[in-house]
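thought: fold this chain, then report.
action: predict
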Amino acid sequence: APERALLAAAAPDAPARVTYDAFFQRMQSWVDDSMVLMADTTIALYSAAELPVNRRDGFIAQAAWNSIGYTTGACLGAGFADARRPVVFTGDGGFQMVCQTLSDVVRAGHGTVMFIFDNQLYGIEQAFVNVEFFTKGAAPEAFNLLYGWDYARLPEVFRGGWGATVHTMAELEDALETARGNTDRLSVIALKIEPNDITPQMLKLAGA
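observation:
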């Protein structure tokens, strides 16, 4: 598909700051068949759908209803159903709705990796309500603004696992290395994304 060109292999000169595009370029070579990829209804959904998956049951998303927060809860069931490691891509808005699921993930001893796109915004809703926030610098709707959390400390709150806050691609590399070896407990990686960052796929879907 033409969209796959948007997720070419990561280049050595990847931008210093974490963006959706740079993150998913890196994911192209980080994810593998030992994982079940789970993409929430977020700006990142359609980028995640372009990641390499070699098994029919290797990718989970709620494509019909598009309920935000679904994969945070669903990762618990996926961890019980399959020996493969759940890897979740979720927005901060959806995650905040069902964050208490992490308590059960910790209790179950699942090695889930939770990537949270922390832009303090209901980004996918903002794109559909007024995409000019992303393209022309328009003000966001007040009802789409989120109160920021310290997501990396949630493993401490729930008494299990490990967390990191990532601003740059170099910090992402360190976090990925730690998460790769942290197979028997929760990893929470908060990705500090600029609020007006958006993927080409979402711009197209929003009619920009």
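thought: worth noting. Residues 26 and 168 are 12 Å apart (CA to CA).
final: tokens above.
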